[in-house]
Each structure stands twice: as structure tokens, then as C-alpha cells.
Amino acid sequence: MNLVHPLGKAPVLNWLYAGMGMIFIMVAIGGITRLTESGLSITTWDPIMGAIPPLNSEDWNNLFDKYKESPEYLHKNRGMSLSEFQSIFWWEWIHRQWGRLIGLVFIVPFLWFWRKGYFLSGIRRHLLGIFFLGALQAFFGWYMVYSGLANEPRVSHYRLALHLSTAFACIVWIWWLVLSIRAKVVAYCPPELKPWLGMSALLLIVQIALGAFTAGKDAGHASNQWPMWSEQQFSPSLIGFQWNLLWTNESWIQFVHRSFAYILVLFVLIMAWKAHKLHWRHPAIGALPWIILLQFLLGVLTVVSGVHLGLALAHQLLALVLLLTLVFAMHPGKRGLPA
After folding, report:
1. Nearest CA-CA partner of 54 in 86, 79, 18
2. pLDDT tens digit sequence for 276-285
3. 95-150 per-position pLDDT tens digit
4. What pLDDT was estimated at residue 153?
5. Distance, C-alpha 161 to centroid of its chain
6. Which of 51, 243, 72 has its CA nearest to residue 153?
């Protein structure tokens, strides 16, 4: 089944590529917002008027007064100057405005292409699903911010994982549609590799969630050594260990994230080796070993650098590239999707 009318193939693909690019930039802006600890600088949610930036000193003082009532100011940034507040405010404001722009770039061409008859029946529900998933992602963003405005000056790492995961899910869904529109033939995949592809995707999804936990709990600062945890220890202290520490304690969250990376890297490398032995020459399979090794290296450098902003951001973005590459390998190559 075709997904788009032949006359609409090029504009629809360009629109979907633009959406992927904007979400990729959104992930980058979100990462910077998190790494600069700017995410709690705007304490209200105003979908309409919130798009207007502060225009004068009165506006700035009103926003700063609201921020002074937040737990982050009271427990962490007490005494912050107005200029310091402005430096964190702008990242969160840009983050929210870029989200609004993504919504406009999606909905306006969507309605126009629908009116032109470019969308055939097989694609409509997928596009509607992406729209509602994007709206849910925006809701999770505010739900996450709200968790840091109640008691502790830190967002819930569970809600951060939801927010990040739905953004990744949106771009993956769009990428799947792009591959489906472009494909002309069924792509062969050795049956022996299909379980390996599925398990690799599952392991990567878990690792991305663990990365979100690490970011949400600021767990990247728990240790800046590798491969040892400290000069004398291979892991955090086992004294008083309880299982719930694996997802609640900063040290154990980082340790689980970095330990799980060994499993993921080994699994992907074995899968690539199996593909080579089976003479499967898919471009994504050829790229995966290099991407996973670079991703591992960036993770190590992020740890030993004390979470350098540039390294940490590159580590997050490459995780998304790795996921998209794996999805490319998994796509069956058929033209169209099930109705």
C-alpha cells in the first residue's frame, strides 16, 4: 500500500525530514537546559502568553520574584542576581518556544497536505498518532518541571525519562514513516539476525532510560573515575545496600548505567560480527559498531571530565543517532505500512 500520492512524495518527505531535524535540535536544547540547570527558571505554564519574552525591567522583576518563591532559589540559588537568573531563564524559554514552533511546523503543513489529498489512508492514522505523542511529550515536559517546583529543587528522574523517551519515540516514528515512503522493495534480513536486532533495540531503550535517570539525579557527578569507581573500589560501597538504591541513589544509578553499557556494546558488536558472517551488507549494520564504540568513548569521557557540557550533550545526541541507525537496520523496506 502506498502512503502518499506520487505528487506529494517530495514535499511530504521534506516536511518529515524537517520535523526530524527540529526534534533533534529540541533534544539538544533540552540537554543544554538540563546541563546548565535552567529547567526550573520559569515557574508557570502559559501556552499562549508564555511565548512573549520579558520586554522590560518590570517583566524581568516579576519573573524573578516568582522564581524567588521556588524551592530551587530558596534551597540552592538564594542570593542569585537578576543577570544570573536571566542566563538560565533564556535556555528554558528557548526550549519552550522551540516546542511551540515544532507544533506549528507539524500542524500547518499537515492540514495543507491533507487538503491537497497527498495523504493516502495508510499514513493518516500514523501522523495523527505522532501529533498526539508530541502533545503528550509536551505535557510530560510540564509534568517534569512541576515536580521540581513542589518540594525539592530537582525534577523527578522518572518524569525526565518519560519526557525524553517520548521525544525519542516521536523522531523514531517519523523516521519509520520516511523509510516506508522511500522504500521500493522488501529488504532481505537473515532470519537468524532478527532476534538480535530486536534485543539490541530493547537493550538500547533501557540504556537510554538509565541515561535519563542519570541526568535527572545529577548522577554523572557521583564518580569521575574509570574503569574503577574510585581508587580502591570497583563499585559504590555495598554497606547498607538495598535493591531500590539501583534506581534511587545517585551513585548506584551511574554505576548501573555505565555497567549496562558494557552489555549493550558487547551485544551490538556480536550482532555486527554475525551479520558479517552471514554476508548481510546493510549500511546500518556496517555503521553500528563504530557508532556504539564512539558512544561508549563519549560516555567515559563525560564521566572523567566531570560531566563537561559539550561531551555530555554529544553523548546524549549520539544515543539518538544510534537508535535511528538501529531502526534503519530493523525496517523491512516495504513500501507502505499495514492499513
Report:
1. 86
2. 999 888 889 9
3. 999 999 999 999 999 999 999 989 887 888 899 999 999 999 988 888 888 887 77
4. 77
5. 9
6. 72
The pLDDT, as a whole number, for residue 185 is: 65
Q: In the beta sheet, which residues pair with residue 119?
A: 4
Q: Are 37 and 95 in contact (CB under 8 A)?
A: no
Distance CA 256, CA 233 (A): 15
Q: Would you place residue 1 in the very low, low, confident or very high pLDDT band (cuts 50, 70, 90)?
A: low
The pTM score is: 0.91
Q: What are the backbone angles phi and psi of residue 13, rounded to the nearest 5°? A: -60, -45
For 267-295, b where at least 16 C-beta lie within 10 A, e where not — what string? bbeebbeebeeeebebebbebbbebbeeb
**CA–CA dist 222, 238 (Å, integer):** 15
Do residues 32 and 179 touch, judged by C-beta distance below 8 A? no
- The one-letter amino acid code at 24 reads F
Any long-range contacts for 257-262 (C-beta under 8 Å, 24+ apart)?
257/207, 257/210, 257/211, 257/213, 257/214, 257/219, 258/226, 258/299, 258/303, 260/203, 260/206, 260/207, 260/210, 261/207, 261/296, 261/299
Please give the Cα distance from 176 to 165 (Å, whole number). 16
Phi and psi for 282 in degrees, rounded to 5? -75, 135
Within the chain, residue ranges assigned H as helices are 9-35, 57-67, 71-75, 82-116, 121-147, 157-182, 194-216, 245-248, 250-277, 283-304, 309-330
Q: How far is CA 328 from the centre of its chain?
A: 17
From CA 104, how far away is CA 98, in angstroms rounded? Answer: 10
Which pLDDT score is estimated for 202? Answer: 95
